[in-house]
Amino acid sequence: MSDPETRQLFTDYVVPTYGRYNAVLERGEGVRVWDEQGKSYLDFGAGIAVSTLGHAHPAIVNALKNQGATLIHTSNLYYTRPQGELAKRLVEIVGTPGKVFFSNSGAEANEALFKLVRKFGSEEKPKSSAAPARFETLTFNQSFHGRTMAGISATGQEKVKTGFSPLLPGFRHLPLNDLAAVEAAVSEQTAAILVEAIQGEGGIRVTTAEFLRGLRRICDRHNLLLMFDEIQCGLGRAGNWCGWRTIAPDVTPDAVSWAKGIAGGFPLGATWFRAKPVSRQDGTETLLCDLLQPGSHGTTFGGTPLACTVSLAVLDTIRDQGLIEKAVTLGQFIQEQLRSIAGIQSVRGAGLIIGFELDSRFEGFSNGKQLPSQVVVNRLLDSGLLTAPAGPLVIRLLPPLIVERAEVDAALTIIRQTLQRLLNP
Ligand SMILES: *Cc1c(COP(=O)(O)O)cnc(C)c1O
Q1: How far is CA 94 from CA 84, 97, 212, 253, in A?
Q2: Which of 53, 235, 379, 406 has the fewest Cβ atoms surrounding its Cβ within 10 A?
Q3: What secondary structure letter does DSSP report for 266?
């Protein structure tokens, strides 16, 4: 099968929900992938922050082989050891007592958050007997929370909502890093706040420590749930097991969602709920992490022995090889180097979730169909570097956490030369 034939299959048979880049990828090893023509690329997109250990990592391959030959799936009608072990590991990562629900993607991990908010509102004892059940979640402009109906309702970007009304009620979007706006927005319907400590799709926009601490204070004052969407920035990528801790180490959330890098490319989502007391209407007490009882939520595939074994192998490898510490130092180096490249106006991020913003000279590079960032991403791809756009002028670097200094140097050279050629044709 040749490259054009593969693309023809997509034209004929695949729903065109993605504007795909012009590469048919066939195999990978480490930080490199190869297309059907045999051309190789440095993968600094990592399948959108997913392939944390790069491609064909022996830890993942062995986990897939061994667990695949042992037990792949049972449904959640039974107990399985890997799911229990992974839940324990994730609770340890948050460092606060709680419990974990497993699903298969980021959208589903967030869906569990949205359903928890509704359940919380319906079961908690209201402030006064006249008070209605609370149901609203505050989110932020430019946020991204997934493509289900609840996910797009929660997302603070118009483009994901167009054509899908009516959306789900109960979401409002506020400006990021603006505590006064949040303070003013809390109403008697508000039950939760959902935030990405580092917005990924929205352009690598980083929250401030004052903001995250202020959100915690507001949540405490009004008894709201503080929920972190760690799907893109969590589990080591930002230079900490918990993305928000690179910004505000002292803040404890009430719920967290993960997916993307959690199992290095094997589909898995997870949602942590805090063991926090909730007073019920009937006077009894329960815990937030016990609100979702049998029959209230579930998914057939969530937390299979195979997915959980692969995830444990990924998390073990990140820990044992010191990849988080490496992400911090390499990330700082990449940010410094990017700042010295002509054509780059600003650099943002933490660890190995980095965005660089093209300067105003690139605004004219939009060719009608493509944003300037997409034009540049295409040129980087032609030069052998995979990256991902995040907004009209921002390009994301999300390399595997196993990336080495030599690969970073090679990627930076491609970026420097590509921008130089674009600005001086
Ligand atoms: C990717 C992403 C999602 C959605 O995850 P899917 O696995 O694509 O459903 C949600 N939130 C954030 C922050 C993401 O980056």
Answers
A1: 16, 8, 16, 9
A2: 406
A3: B
Question: What is the length of the chain?
Answer: 425
Pocket residues: Cβ below 6 A from ligand 1: 105-107, 110, 144-146, 196, 200-201, 229, 231-232, 259-260
Distance 129 CA to ligand 1 centre (A): 38
User: Mapping DSSP to helix (H, G, I), strand (E, B) and coil, where does residue 248 land?
Assistant: coil
Ligand 1 pocket: which of 48, 195, 199, 201 to mutate (most atoms within 8 A of CB): 201
Return the number of other C-beta atoms located less than 10 Å from residue 130's C-beta: 6
Which atom number of ligand 1 is nearest to the Cα of residue 107?
A: 9
Q: Contact, 350 vs 238, CB < 8 A? A: yes
H-helix or E-strand spanning residue 287: strand 285-287
- In this prediction, residue 130 carries a pLDDT of 82
Check if the beta carbon of residue 306 is closer than 8 Å to that of residue 72: yes
pTM over 0.85: yes
pLDDT 10s digits, 287-327: 999 999 999 999 999 999 999 999 999 999 999 999 999 99
Q: Check if the beta carbon of residue 75 is closer than 8 Å to that of residue 299.
A: no
